[in-house]
């Protein structure tokens, strides 16, 4: 037994005496994430298909027609439109909350759409609800997407801004993403605080 | 501004990486705005831009200290594009794949 392995074993014993614990082997479903590990190719895949399916069911969109983009190209959501009933308003808030949870966990592909939708949780319109449901229809076709970490090395960052494309507030949306071992490890899509010139 | 946010994240990711692996190297940062990039590389003492603030100085400081390595990338290869705008399908899919989100094959 190597030194590192011995240290790992003693640490494990210490944890198991201090806390109530049991050994469960390799993780396959952990904190809502499916983890698939392939020792032969040296990859780890993380997906959230179970959560997406539950979500589709709870919003009654199991039968909805699929789309391949979370938001159609060039979409700009504005404040204008017919406001939602109180009941639908709550539905909207729940839906956006769920989308943001996914976007924060592994689905950075809906990060931008989720961020745009979340700007309207205070007074959503029918248009916003339709846009939110569209994201669900996108998730339906892409539920099996997984972050795939491989053997590639190095930490790579990408940073971008849209130069005050929001015509209502004149504020910019910033996005950054860091890749490591071939997949994203950290990202954000955020509206900048001050007015940019 | 975007650079400043990304730099903050880069700084802590770099520190975490050093803690975990002991490997100390600059974080590669890709930017698709040439003027922003030029500002990041400028020498502070002879700085011509009067409109600057603490955030800009922060980014410059990290680049000068070789903690971040900011380089240009054409907009077509800008992975973070999908986080700032609603892209057409081809560009969207390309960004998604470049960031490692791919179809699960079991």
Features:
heterodimer, A: 197 residues, alpha+beta, 3-stranded antiparallel beta sheet, 5 helices, 36% helix, B: 106 residues, 3 strands, 46% helix
Structure write-up:
The complex is a heterodimer of chains A (197) and B (106). Chain A is an alpha+beta fold. Chain A has a domain of 110 residues. Chain A is 36% helix and 21% strand. The model of chain A has no long low-confidence stretch (mean pLDDT 87). Chain B has two domains: 72 residues, no CATH class; 32 residues, no CATH class. In chain B, helix 1 crosses helix 3. The model of chain B has no long low-confidence stretch (mean pLDDT 81). Chain B has a two-stranded parallel ribbon. Classes of the chains: A alpha+beta (197), B alpha+beta (106). At the A-B interface, helix 4, strand 4, strand 5, strand 6 and strand 7 of A face helix 1, strand 1, helix 4 and strand 3 of B. Strand 4 of chain A pairs antiparallel with strand 3 of chain B.
Question: What is the topology?
Answer:
The complex is a heterodimer of chains A (197) and B (106).
Chain A: H1 3-18, E1 29-30, E2 33-38, E3 43-47, H2 49-58, H3 86-105, H4 111-118, H5 126-142, E4 145-149, E5 155-161, E6 173-180, E7 183-191
Antiparallel strand pairs in A: 1-2, 2-3, 3-4, 5-6, 6-7
Helix pairs in contact in A: 2-5, 3-4, 3-5
Chain B: H1 2-21, E1 27-31, H2 34-41, H3 54-64, E2 68-72, H4 89-98, E3 101-103
Parallel strand pairs in B: 1-2
Oligomer: heterodimer
Q: What would you call the structural class of chain A?
A: alpha+beta
- If helices are DSSP runs of H or I spanning 4 or more residues, what is the number of helices of chain B? 4
Q: Mind summarizing the main beta sheet of chain A?
A: 4 strands, antiparallel
Strand order of the largest sheet of chain B: 1-2
What is the H/E order of chain A?
Answer: HEEEHHHHEEEE
N- to C-terminal distance of chain B = 41 Å
């Amino acid at each position: 037994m190597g030194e590192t392995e011995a240290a790992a074993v003693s640490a494990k014993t210490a944890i198991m005496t201090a806390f109530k614990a049991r050994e469960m082997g390799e993780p396959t479903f952990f904190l809502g994430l499916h983890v698939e590990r392939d020792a032969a190719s040296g990859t780890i895949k993380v997906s959230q298909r179970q959560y997406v399916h539950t979500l589709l069911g709870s919003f009654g969109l199991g039968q909805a027609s699929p789309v391949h983009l979370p938001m159609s190209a060039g979409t700009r959501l504005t404040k204008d439109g017919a406001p939602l009933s109180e009941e639908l308003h709550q539905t909207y808030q729940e839906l956006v909350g769920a989308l943001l949870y996914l976007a924060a966990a592994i689905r950075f592909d809906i990060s931008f759409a989720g961020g745009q939708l979340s700007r309207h949780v205070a007074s959503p319109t029918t248009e916003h609800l339709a846009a939110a449901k569209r994201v669900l229809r996108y998730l339906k076709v892409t539920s099996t997407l997984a972050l795939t970490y491989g053997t590639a090395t190095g930490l790579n960052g990408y940073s971008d801004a849209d130069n005050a494309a929001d015509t209502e507030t004149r504020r910019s949306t910033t996005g950054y993403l860091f890749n490591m071992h071939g997949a994203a490890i950290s990202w954000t899509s955020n509206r900048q605080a001050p007015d940019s010139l | 501004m975007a650079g400043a946010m990304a730099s903050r994240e880069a700084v802590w990711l770099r520190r975490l990486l050093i803690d975990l692996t002991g490997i100390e190297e600059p974080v590669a940062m890709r930017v698709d705005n040439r003027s922003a990039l030029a500002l990041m590389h400028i020498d502070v003492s002879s700085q011509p831009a009067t409109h600057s603030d603490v955030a800009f100085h922060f980014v410059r400081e990290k680049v000068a200290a070789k903690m971040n390595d900011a380089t240009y990338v054409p907009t077509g290869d800008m992975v973070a594009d999908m986080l700032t705008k609603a892209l057409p399908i081809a560009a969207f899919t390309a960004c998604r794949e470049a960031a490692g989100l791919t179809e699960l094959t079991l």
